[in-house]
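Action item from last week, closing it out:
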Amino acid sequence: MPGESPISITTQRLLQQTLCNWQQWQTKSALDCQPEVVRELVGGRTNKTFLVAAGVFQAVVRINSPDSLKLGIDRQREARVLGLLQSTGLVPQVYFIDDEVLVSEFIEGDSLNTKSLKNTHIMESLSEALGLVQSVKMPDSNPRNYLEYCQNYLDQLSGDIVSASVKQQIEQAALEVDAESWEPVICHHDMVPENIIVNERGLFIIDWEYAALGHPRLDFIRLYDGDYGLTGQQEGAMRSLFKVKQAMDKLWLAVQL
C-alpha cells in the first residue's frame, strides 16, 4: 500500500473493514463497487488518512489516532459539529463516521498559505465563513474550559519539559480567558492555513477534530497570529487568549514527542 510511513496492523484492519462496509456509506449517489486505496495522504501528524476511489467517486478515509484522549480529542463531539455544519457548505460531506473512522468527501483544491491570507478577497471570504460557522448553534453542549484543556496536556509532561513557572503562566492565562465574558461559538481550534482549501466551488474548512464551543476570537487569532482586527484596548483584552493559543500549540507538540 502506498505511503511514506509505516502503517500499523490496526490501521490496516480498520481501513480494510471500512472499505468492505462501503455500502453503509451515506453518499449522495449510489456506489456500484467497493472503493480502493489510491494513496496515503501525508501531512498530518495525528491520524492516518487515505484517498480512496471507485470510478469517478473519490473519498477520504481517516483512521483515527489511538491517542485521541491524550491529545484532547472528543470524537463524538467532532461528529456532532460536522453534522451541524453540513448545511453550511463549508465542510466536507460526511459519508460515514464513528469513534475510529471518518469517511468524507475529498476536496480538491489549493490549501491556503501565509501569503494568501493577506489577500483582501481571501480575508473577506474567511471572515464570512467563520461568521457563518459561529452562527450555527450547538445546544446542550458545554463551552471549552481552557484551563482544564491545558492541564490535560500539562499533566502528561514532566517538569523537565515544562517548568513550574511556565506551567503557572499558562494556567494563569487560561484562567483569565475562562473568567472573561464571551459568547461561546463553534470554534475549530486548529484553524491553520493548511486546513483551508479553495477551489472553483469556493472555500472549505477541513480537520474539525479539535472543534468545540469556544472563544469567538480564537480562530481569527490563530490564523492571523494575533493581529487580525485587534487594536488598542481590544488587543490588551485578547493578550491572555493569544498566550493560551501559543501554549496549546506547544503543549500539543510536546505530548507527541
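Closing note: The chain has a mean pLDDT of 92.
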